[in-house]
Amino acid sequence: MSPTDVPFWDAVDQIRESDPRFRREAYGFLLLALGATVNSLSAERQADPARRHLSGAELLYGMVVLARSEFGAMAPAVFREWGVRASSDVGDMVFQLVECGQLSARPEDKREDFHGFDLMGMLAEGAHATPPRPRRPGGTA
Fold this sequence. Notes:
This protein has 8 helices and no strands. The chain is an all-alpha fold. It is globular. It has one domain (3-125). The protein has helices at residues 8-18, 24-39, 43-47, 49-52, 56-71, 75-81, 87-99, 119-125. Residues 133-141 have low confidence and may be disordered.
């Protein structure tokens, strides 16, 4: 059986056996946010597989939008309960799902694409009109 033949929740359980930092719900929410974010793209971008691919910033933004919609002001508390406290945590979950064949990545994609964002601040404040840029060292954007 190839990794892509493994049902999603079985793959999540396998991930959590070796790395239990994040609750199962966090992985499910990540997948929901990925789908919602892709569905929010323009029709032209959705039709082109190369352009349909999301950046780390776009996925983080999509997660924040969905979390604020679903959980409102409780979004930061929900993410903390799930063990997701930083944007790098989202990157870790994404690449765990890539490594077990549940998601795909381009050769240029890396975990560091998810570093440098203030996830808890974004969840607390709500999403901005455009995807956020990572903070530069020293805390400036």
